[in-house]
Amino acid sequence: MPAELFAQALNGLAYGVLLFLLSVGLTLIFGMLDVVNLAHGSFYMLGAYAGLAVVAGSGSFWLALLAAPVAIGLIGALIERSCLRPLYRRPPLDQVLLTFGFIYLFEDLVKWLWGGRIRSIPPPDLFAGSTSVLGATIPSYRLFVIVFGLVMAVLLWLLIERTRLGAIIRAGVFDAEMTAGLGIDIRRVFTGVFAFGAALGGLSGVIAGPIQSAYPSMGVTILIPALIVVVVGGLGSLKGSFVGSLVIGQAETFGKAWLPDAAMLIIYVVMAAIVLVRPQGLFGRPLK
Amino acid sequence: MILRLLALALAVVALAAFPLVAGNYPVKLLQEILIWGIFAMSLDLLMGYAGMVSFGHSAFFGIGGYVAALALTRSAGLTSALVLPTLAAGLAALVIGYFSIRVSGVYFIMLTLAFSQMFHAYTFQVSWLGAEDGIVGIPRPAAPGVDLGALRSFHGYLLTLVVLVAVVLWRVVRSPFGHVLRGIHENEARMEALGYAVDRYKLLAFVIAGMVAGVAGSLYAQFSGSITPDAFFWKTSGEALLMVIIGGTGSLGGAMLGAAAFILLQSLVSTYTERWMLILGATFILFVLFAPGGIVGVLRGRVGLRA
Fold first, then answer.
1. Which of A66, A135, A251, B252 has minimal CB crowding within 10 Å?
2. What is the span of the domain harbouring residue A106?
């Protein structure tokens, strides 16, 4: 039994790491631009399809892992420059509503280009089999996802806490106006952060491909758990995103196994309780 | 003023006479517009007047629908069709609102979303509500002397309720209460400083909006004869939101126009192409960018200016 439990925990970890890659983009964009990007799930879905296209064209999963995020990042930059920028002077909810429109646009666009059915993305040959870890057998690809996600978490932490660019981003999150006053071109930082967040969304889509396949509504499906992670962890907090993802990942995986009827319900209840008791989330800064 | 009233009266007469000149399909389309119009108006009371953007308004639509379904299958009267669903939705709004109004902005969006999704998750699982298939075969109520199963009599019943709801909401937004709501929208801190119990006003607005949404949900269940967990899903809230924005926030007529534009566009576009969602998304984005006042804003010639 313990081996089965352990396998379950590893599956939860793989899902949690995936949620982290997705929610970190969401939380960065919110921290910087004050926009809850409802189209973030769409970037994830577009990433999976871009990955699918690259794999189909070149046969290389690794190329997809590189090319798809770049493509989605470019789409993100385009959206920020053309649609979000004109709205920064309006009430912040206008921007949220705008991103809501993109959900419909992208989902239908993908249906148009690829059709509505589920398309599977094969894992790279290197991780096609399964591996035994301490008596638990799990697909090798999931182990790769776990390691990849943890490495990404460390790299992101280094980028944000230890580099000059990261310092600018942190300053912008703290007070965008003051940062601009220090002579930093905050508009370019805004575009950059939005594009980077979108690219991370796209990256998580490619990563998810071999586990969850690609289908048009996958973006909407993942959006709610990602939003829950961000709210539970604290909007704008990298650490919150990390802890929140791992907790929700385990809660959903074990919840589905043990309490299939109540699993989703519990997650919403947890989120509602946190918003009420500690609206800034576990690691967020106190609300102004 | 008199001209406006006259125009509205004419519009109501035209809507009432519509089944005499049109076939079954257009009449059903119109009925769908009227039901969604009620739902959109109730959301607009929150969004446009009180400034509370909710992503969980479907909770009350769904409760209205499910309560009507349960009540009507036991006793098909007007109490089951209107009184019980409205009261149930109002009670739910009181509880959800009590918690939700403590936070605002993004947190209000997330909390209302979470509450409506709880209902979705619950109804999706439990067998006594038909799980994911929902409840089908809901009878229409038997009003004294009329058979609401027939298209034309149902149309009269529906239109009467739409007019009733519109008059009530119009009275609400024109009342001192409605002006306080607009004041809260503009500047909550100032209203608080002026001595208004802001939280109580917001809660009351939330409950009224919830009750009206409950009426819409019940009417939808009677109209289609079925209700599924989809009624609770956040896309239901999202569609109402699209209608309000496209029609124009802060205007009850705008919400109704938005519902009409949404449903007409949907049925029109889907006869020519499958790309309905693409066109909807693009239309919505263009409205947010270039006509934040919605159709009403464009009609008033105030494009780009916020009411």
1. A135
2. 2-219
